[in-house]
Amino acid sequence: MTSASVPARSSAARIDVVPLKRPDRADCLALLGLSASGGRLPAEIGTILALPPERAPFTHGPALCLTARLRRSANPKPHGAVFASFPDWARQHALVQRDPDLSALLSRVALDVYGVAVAPRRRGQGIARALLTEAEDRARRAGCRLVTLLHKPELTVFYRNLGYTSAFHVTIAMPRAGLGLTQLPPLMTAVKPLHPDVRVLEMPGTPGPVVVGLLPGWDLPPNARFDNGRLPA
Fold first, then answer.
1. Which domain holds residue 19?
2. Which of 7, 35, 165, 196 could form a disulfide with 115 if both were Cys (CB 3.0 to 4.6 A apart)?
């Protein structure tokens, strides 16, 4: 297992980010309960965190769970945590339910962050940034091409500064169709490319940004236009 050491933005301390260790499981779950999207955490998260990793970038079963500490802190407990896995939409969206091969592919090229949280008195010290950066790096090395997450509108600037594009509706371009990710307030969808072939564009006929290039070897034609969420033949 590797660990990331990241300079904190507002202090001389450094941040160590490592996979969750068994003694920290209860503290990690408590932290993730503070996440703005904590309600999305799977009900079986406690069981998941006791499993061996299924494949990279996962650290526990079908999930990636990392914790963060300030290196010079006298408190041995983690100050932040992130939990990520394959996206729900890769298996549950109507566009993929009848196409198990496409569902399996999307589950391998996209990672969804279900929760990222920092202890209240440790916020503003770069911990969330360090957690997300390490999660993205691990996903990128494992072949993931896109990371998605949900957040409240007041965090839009924070995620924009980390390279995310946020909207209430995001479309992922697929052959002949658009896979729409729609959120009602107070949550927004944020997306970030992890591969140079993946881009986030504004296109006529869509209610928000469009992710193109997610499927390896397939991209939208230059003159493509959406019509009610579909790509005309």
1. 1-85+115-142
2. 35
